[in-house]
Amino acid sequence: MKAMVLAAGVGSRLKPLTDTMPKALVPVNGKPMLEHILLKLKTSGFTHVIINVHHFGKQITDFLDSRQHFGLQIDISDESGYLMDTGGGIKQAAPFLNDGEPFLVHNVDVFSNVDLKDMYECHVASKALATLLVASRQTSRYLLFNKDNCLCGWCNRETGETRSFYPGFDPSQYTEYAFSGIHIISPDIFRWMDDWTGKFSIINFYLSICPKTVIRPYTMENLRWMDAGKIESFADVQAWLKEEK
After folding, report:
1. Cα gap 109→226, rounded to integer Å
2. CA nearest 140: which of 154, 126, 122?
3. E strand or H helix at 236, and its extent?
4. 55: which DSSP letter?
């Protein structure tokens, strides 16, 4: 199985830690974030990983070389010249990903107890274009799914903004879920991206195509999920990982 780790962000929410290193190499309980994610992917059966790099990208490639790539086949999607955002980054990595099999995309700063293999298998069985790990946790921005468990829109509870390409869209009629930074994507996604160029958000892309295809949520009872990409939650992530040992 194949996965992509989104590791190109500049890590502005983790300053000053990211003033001298990429977010992916910020240590969490003595190990870089990237190492935690790669080991989880390896344990879950993923053997080929693509990592996009931008901010202090050479530090990441040097780190991977020093660890013999953790016994994985690793390819680098280089965004050193221009940061492509999540959607643009996935599209740029198409030469590594578009081989006819679904692939997983995982934010480097996301920690969870989700069973990645089960999520992958559920995606394959569903025949959806994409399957998104979601949760009912409190946040300001939610993805909206209809009674058939299909993505239909987005809302921001703080600003009141909503977004959907569905005619007559009413956000009160849908289930709200918070996106959790892990998704399984079928390779047909690249056909849908033909008219998208440069830097773009994968969520904006999903919202634009959801009336014409199937994008499903993946939920899990007792999901534990944390964002290690911001200073205010960093200590909580480290404490949780100590509990898990």
Report:
1. 8
2. 154
3. helix 231-244
4. T
pTM of the model: 0.95
The partner residues of 78 in beta bridges, in order of sequence, read: 53
- pLDDT, tens digit (0-9, with 9 covering 90-100), for 149-172: 999 999 998 998 988 887 777 878
Amino acid identity of residue 232, one-letter, is E
Determine the Cα–Cα distance for residues 196 and 198; give it in Å rounded to an integer: 7
DSSP of 196-210, one letter per residue? --SS--HHHHHHHHT
Alpha helix locations (H) across 93-131? 94-97, 116-126
- Rounded CA-CA distance 109/72 in Å is 20
Please tell me whether residue 94 adopts helix, strand or coil conformation.
helix
- Tens of pLDDT along 58-104? 999 999 999 999 999 999 999 999 999 999 999 999 999 999 999 99
Q: What are the tokens at 146?
A: 């209809």
Q: What are phi and psi of 7, to 5 degrees?
A: -130, 20
Among 237, 206, 54, 218, which Cα is nearest to 120's? Answer: 218
User: Rounded distance, CA 163 to CA 207, Å?
Assistant: 8
In the block, residue with structure tokens 């799914």: 145
> Could you tell me whether strands 215-218 and 130-135 are parallel, antiparallel, or unpaired per DSSP bridges?
parallel
